[in-house]
Amino acid sequence: MISPPLAASILAYRRQRYSQAEIIRILGVSKSTIYRHTHQHVGHIRVTQRQEAARRIGGVVRPQLTGTCCAAAEAMSLPAPATTDAHSFYLCALHSLRHAKIDFLVGGAYALERYTGIARDTKDLDVFVRPEDCERVLAAFAEAGFDTELTFPHWLGKARSGGEMVDVIFSSGNGCARVDDEWFRHAVDDQVLDVPVRLIPVEEMIWSKALIMERERYDGADVVHLLRARGADLDWPRVLRRFGPNWRVLLSHLILFGFVYPGHRDVIPQGVMRELTARLDRETRAPTVDGDDARLCRGTLLSREQYLVDVERWGYRDARLGPEGTMTEADVAAWTAAIEGRLPTSAR
Asked: Which residue among 7, 184, 291, 318 is least enclosed by CB atoms within 10 Å?
């Protein structure tokens, strides 16, 4: 019997009018497998049943990345490769986007391994798209037979087939790291699962990760490892521009980098450190902030949960909202409601 996720992938390629030879080449299956699929599955797999039909067999998925990688990766003990079902699902997702001729970038664990040599178990694939392309991407995945949803309208959609998932990312949970044309101009050519793709730029990866400081997830170690591996070659003017008014967050990571790697402090250009510490000095010497800014809390840009008490009980202004932020009250409410096991502020 053919596993349901593999059957769903074959069916998705059939719907897109891929030839039998192309399906065999893409999925790495035999002609007899295609024959069995025709007799066992085509007659009863329907779009309305695709979630059950694509139920995951199980197993942890490791990103399989080909192309240039840090030499350190070769010396590491890497996890087991992806299951055939996950491999088929990700291939189908990548080819669906290429077939639809939609610009996309790959990030997440694939890009982290490419830039740092650190392999990480992952159960999904992160694709980054322009905000205006999100609906087209989800439509392409739906046409391929995946279940799709616009999970959070301000930054994230999802496509699923059984237990496998693709995150369709066009901004960040805090609304800061919105995907724009620069992400694509500076993207890095590579291959994922032997499919030609472009990876998100390391500068934008640092920018988006630097602002993730949740109680259950802190991406500071990823930032430090990215700086260690790529700091000497970064487009630092672009990094500074990306952080903009949130430059203190960047400075905090650069200071931490010097603590973690005292022997690699020279990776960070002296000019960058001088610029940021000069800003700090000017702010320190400036008069105390008053007016509206005196009641501003930027903590919500770092954690959607840990600073709720500030904006819900103590009267601070939420930096995610205008005029500084890009999120609406509805965006904030939906993002807050999704916090697992959250208690009302009054009950904490």
From this structure: 291
